Amino acid sequence: MLLPWPERGAVAIQPPGTGPGYWAGAPCAVADDGEIFVAYRLRRPTDRGRGYAVVVARSGDGERFETLLSIGKKDLATESLERAALVRTPEGRWRLYLSCATFGTKHWRVEMTEAAHPGEFDAGRREVILPGDAKTGVKDPVIRYRDGQWHLWASCHPLADPDQTDQMTTEYATSPEGLTWTWHGTALSGTPGQWDARGTRVTAVDFGEGGVTAYYDGRASAAENWEERTGVAVGTDPAALTPQGDGPAAVSPFHGGGLRYLDIVPLPDGRHRLYYEMTRPDGSHALITELR
Question: Is residue 214 classed exposed, middle or buried when 0-12, 13-18 and 19+ CB atoms within 10 A define those classes?
Answer without folding.
Answer: buried
